[in-house]
Design brief:
The protein contains five helices and seven strands, in the order βαβαβαβαβαββ. It is of the alpha/beta class and 180 residues long. Strands 3-2-4-1-6-7-5 form a seven-stranded mixed β-sheet. Helix 2 links the parallel strand 2 and strand 3 (83-86). The model has no long low-confidence stretch (mean pLDDT 94).
Length: 180
């Protein structure tokens, strides 16, 4: 099925992998903060989302410190950030878990931003994309690095209808900040 094959309004799932994290000794994985590069890249990701008209109606973010930091820095680039829901299920989730989380999105939400981790996010994008534009699928297959943004478009009356192969992968970009 292609993105236009479904019935209902156009919906967009924007997938953002957290920005680069630090690896301090004696810090649990869930508690790892952003690295200096991550603190530079996350605001750029926020600007890319705004400039590309990919701002969400709702954001669902992992509870991990690095994901929350990515959300805070990215959303600070917008006039009025949308509601965010921090969901522990996004941390260490696989594609099926992430699809379940996305499926719980209220039907009035047209664009959902999901901020989390690999390999789950990459698996989700590859699972949902039945087709792509401009080689975006090849780019995701090659690497879905920190701060990567994938944009999937599909049509459906509810988010529960989001299913493998039903979306069009319209973009995959990797925002990077400049070193001072």
């Amino acid at each position: 099925m292609t993105a236009r094959a479904g019935a209902g309004p156009r919906r967009r799932l924007v997938v953002l992998r957290h920005a680069k994290s630090a690896w301090p000794e004696d810090v649990a994985d869930h508690e790892r903060p952003l690295a200096p590069r991550g603190r530079r890249d996350a605001p750029v990701a926020g600007r890319v989302l705004a400039e590309s008209d990919w701002l969400p109606d709702l954001a669902v973010c992992s509870t991990a410190v690095r994901a929350r930091g990515t959300w805070e820095l990215a959303s600070a680039e917008w006039g009025t950030p949308p509601q965010v829901r921090f969901d522990h299920r996004v941390y260490a989730a696989d594609a099926a878990d992430l699809l379940t989380v996305a499926g719980e999105t209220p039907p009035q939400v047209g664009t959902l931003l999901l901020i989390g981790h690999n390999p789950g996010l990459e698996e989700l994008v590859l699972t949902l994309a039945g087709s792509d534009m401009d080689g975006a699928l090849d780019a995701v297959r090659e690497k879905f690095p920190t701060s990567a943004i994938a944009v999937l478009t599909w049509y459906g009356h509810t988010w529960e209808a989001l299913a493998p192969g039903c979306a069009l992968l319209t973009a995959m970009v990797v925002p990077r900040g400049k070193k001072p």
